[in-house]
Amino acid sequence: MLYPCARNDANTSRKMDDRMSAHARKATNVTKPAEPRRFVFLLLDRFTMLSFAGAIEPLRIANRVAEETLYAWKLAGESGDTAICSNGTAFKLDMGLDEVTREDTVLVCGGIDVQRATSRGIIGWLRREARRGATIGGLCTGAYALAKAGLLDGRRATIHWENQDGFLEEFEDVKLTKSVFVIDGNRLTSAGGTASIDMMLKIIAQDHGEDLANTVADQLIYSAIRTDQDTQRLSIPTRIGVRHPKLSQVIQMMESNIEDPMSPADLAEEVGMSTRQLERLFRRYLNRSPKRYYMELRLSKARNLLMQTDMSVINVALACGFASPSHFSKCYRAHYNTTPYRERGTQGGGTGVRLSI
């Protein structure tokens, strides 16, 4: 771990101002750049507020704690004077894309309908900035814009776990991880939500030391700083609300074998149980059979692929372990009360508009 988690200390009875002043004094001991590091937040249409705020607030607090302008930032957009986030709030833009300099760190803020928001103009601009050697990152689904521009080819990157299936299908040259954030050279990606906080704390620690990063985390009441080694999702026991080692092991195997589903007998054998014991285990804790639970996992992935990619229904069916489109359609309709073809139709003909959180 790069730096220790910020923790509540029973001995910290000092006043907040005294604590901040102490850290500010420590900050004066580190070498600072002549000019503040500047970030440009490129706000795509309907970007998510949480990931954006999680990136900008640590910078503000770092300046406050250090009692010095370590960081500066501007809001930019492709056109117009404002950008609208996914909850409908409007943000006034500070600059156009033509005003961004090579020294700026660009963070693309994505959200709902990121494919539509990632215009040809945005893609071309990102490629030009990359050729100039700019540091460029993506917050939330902003990673999609970077990948579409080819900026993540051969690089490690991340995106929200819900969007990983579709992303993998479209961008095979990206080394996608399940980390909360990834910093690969001059490419930065965070998975969305609070992962932006973790990435910015890492940047602050790299720029100005661990003490300042921990103090910023303390101000944010962020008690456990995650690193790029931490994964996004809650553990299986936490997700299902059941702590049973064999049940978790079987679910893990199911999640890892969607395209080629394992039989209940094989699953049971892997954990040293009979098929009947496995059946009772699932019904006791999850109120459904192993077969039904497995089917729901496969259909969930299928729905993501239908809504996030332009894969044909046949290929979606095969990717989720269905032998034929007809069987896939029958199972899909029974679970979602609609057909895969209608689902695809409601999503704009397979444009993948659900690439968001």
What do you see in this structure?
The protein is 46% helix and 13% strand. The longest helix is centred in the last third of the chain and has 19 residues. By secondary structure, the protein is an alpha/beta fold. The chain folds into two domains: 204 residues, Class I glutamine amidotransferase (GATase) domain (Rossmann fold, 3-Layer(aba) Sandwich), CATH 3.40.50.880; 109 residues, Orthogonal Bundle (Arc Repressor Mutant, subunit A). A seven-stranded mixed sheet has the order 5-2-1-6-7-11-10, sandwiched between helices. The protein has a two-stranded antiparallel ribbon with strand order 3-4. Strands 8-9 form a two-stranded parallel ribbon. The radius of gyration is 23 Å and the shape is globular. It has 16 helices and eleven strands. Strand 10 and strand 11 form a beta hairpin.
Keywords:
357 residues, disordered N terminus, Arc Repressor Mutant, subunit A, globular, disordered C terminus, single chain, alpha/beta, two-stranded antiparallel sheet, 2 domains, 11 strands, Rossmann fold, 7-stranded mixed sheet
Q: What name is given to the CATH topology of the largest domain?
A: Rossmann fold
Please list the strands of the largest sheet in the order they lie side by side: 5-2-1-6-7-11-10
Question: Could you state the CATH homologous superfamily of the largest domain?
Answer: Class I glutamine amidotransferase (GATase) domain
What is the 3D shape? globular
Number of domains: 2
Determine the strand fraction and express it as a percent band. 5-15%
CATH class of the largest domain: Alpha Beta
Q: Return the average pLDDT rounded to an integer.
A: 88
The string of secondary-structure elements, in order, is HEHEEEEEHHEHEHEEEHHHHHHHHHH
